[in-house]
Amino acid sequence: MDIQDAHHLFVWFFEELSTQFQKVPGSAIFLRYVKSSYQNDPVRSAVELFLFLFAVRYLLAPKYSTQKQNYVTLSDEEVDELVEDWTPEPLVAPQTAFEETENEKRPVIVGPTGPKTKLSNGRTVTNLASYNFYNFVANETLKEKAIQTLRTYGVGPCGPPGFYGTQDVHMKTEADIATHLGAPACIVYAQAFSVISSVIPAFSKRGDIIVVDKAVNYAIRKGVQISRSTVRWYEHNNMEDLQRVLDKVTKEQAKKPLTRRFIVTEGVFENVGDVVDLPKIIELKLQYKFRLILDETWSFGVLGRTGRGVTEQQHVDASEVDMIVGSLAGPLCAGGGFCAGSDEIVEHQRISAAAYTFSAALPAMLATMASETLGLLQTNADIMVQLRENIRTMRAQLDPRSDWVICTSSPDNPIMLLILKTGVITSKHLSVTEQEQLLQEIIDETLTNGVLITRLKSMPRALHTTAKQVEWELQPALKVCMTTGLTRKEIERAGTTIRHAITKIISRRKG
């Protein structure tokens, strides 16, 4: 067959193929589409032809198993040998000798907690180590209300709030808190600690910016860590340094995509006891266009004429704070916590806050107690006046009359934090660990004389954490909690006991 015959055969083959193809239904439409779409775009035709051939090859390719083992098979003896040689890294650091000794001597309370508490050794002591500020635990009316609620609703809802855990008492508590604060809406959580650590990551994500006070509590630190946001720290309660950080962040982000920006701080600082300068922070957050998350765990129910917290004490409208977080487990002697803000902020948390979405709802009895105790603070201002009078009585016995310690807490803070004076630390050459040991000796001596107090504690550093990675070091301190359940004379006696124990222990310590 010569070339001409081959050519005729080739032409005949394609004509026959075209004739058979045109008999296929819809072939004419396909040919018109190809001619109109690709006559001026050969590259597109080539790409689609490649994709068509790839699809055909993929469909015709042989099957393969996804369960195919691609690792070395070990014998049972080899597995046992590897297991024996493997040493897991500890989840926490081992206890020190000091911690073991402290745990062995830790007092155990028998029966209800109150101003006078019975210990397991049979002694009854003055309890200045609990958050029973208003002695609500001894209120018979509250006890009867709690029993009645328990009989009506049971011990717990046994379900998350967003599914079937929400009850009418939860909605009432949310409305009561929102009304008390003057906020548009409120959401109640089952655990106080989890509120702030869930609120922060619910709003701030990777790429967003959080500016935080260096002395904030552990729950805030966990929330900041979980959010994976960019974090900037400012010196504790230093408004000039806060402005410097805000100015720096604003300049850095000027030419970058818009991100969410937050200031996170506390009303009353758990680790120091002092109070935030809220009006100044409001001014700065408006100036630099940041949102403010205020943790009032230790100021709600304590500060202000009716216990509304820092906003009431410093005459700031609650609506100027984007999110107010608080606890119902401290001064209110109930349980759980809350976040108050706009309707949009609250509703967003109902589907985005981990502690709300994935936890059982607050037991009805605790929600009822929160509403009841909140009502007592609103209608009975005398108990707050009495508490502040007791605080002044105790401070008069300790801070100005002691040569060894000073109180860093705000004058209205019922949790008095007593730290060693700088001169004492210097003259005695005390490290942080030695300060903790010295304060524990004071606590033991005070307990021997019938007064139960404690000391400020925080979570230990993570394993392999260096000093440079720690933004702020906790200052060891004694913690003395006031209550309205004691008379003036009882408080004076307790203050004298604490002061004498401090003097006795520190005096015999050689520098």
Low-pLDDT regions = none
- Give a count of the beta strands, DSSP E runs of length 2 or more: 15
> Can you summarize the main beta sheet?
7 strands, mixed
Strand content: 5-15%
* Shape field: elongated
**With helices defined by DSSP (H or I, 4 residues minimum), what is the helix count?**
20
Oligomer class: single chain
Mean pLDDT: 89
Sheet with most strands: strand arrangement: 4-10-9-8-7-5-6
- What structural category arises from helix and sheet content? alpha/beta
What is the CA-based Rg, rounded?
A: 34 Å
- What percent of the residues sit in helical stretches (DSSP H or I)? 40-55%
Distance between the termini: 115 Å
Describe the protein.
- By secondary structure, the chain is α/β, with parallel strands linked by helices.
- Helix content is 48%, strand content 12%.
- It contains 20 helices and 15 strands.
- The protein has helices spanning 3-22, 27-38, 42-60, 76-85, 97-104, 140-153, 161-165, 168-181, 192-203, 218-227, 239-252, 278-288, 310-313, 343-352, 354-357, 364-379, 382-398, 422-428, 432-448, 488-507; strands at 109-110, 116-119, 124-127, 185-189, 209-213, 230-234, 261-266, 291-295, 323-327, 337-341, 405-407, 415-420, 451-452, 454-455, 478-481.
- The strands form three sheets. A seven-stranded mixed β-sheet has the order 4-10-9-8-7-5-6, with helices on both faces.
- Strand 2 and strand 3 (124-127) form a beta hairpin.
- The longest helix is centred in the N-terminal third of the chain and has 20 residues, at 3-22.
- It is elongated, with a radius of gyration of 34 Å.
- The termini are far apart.
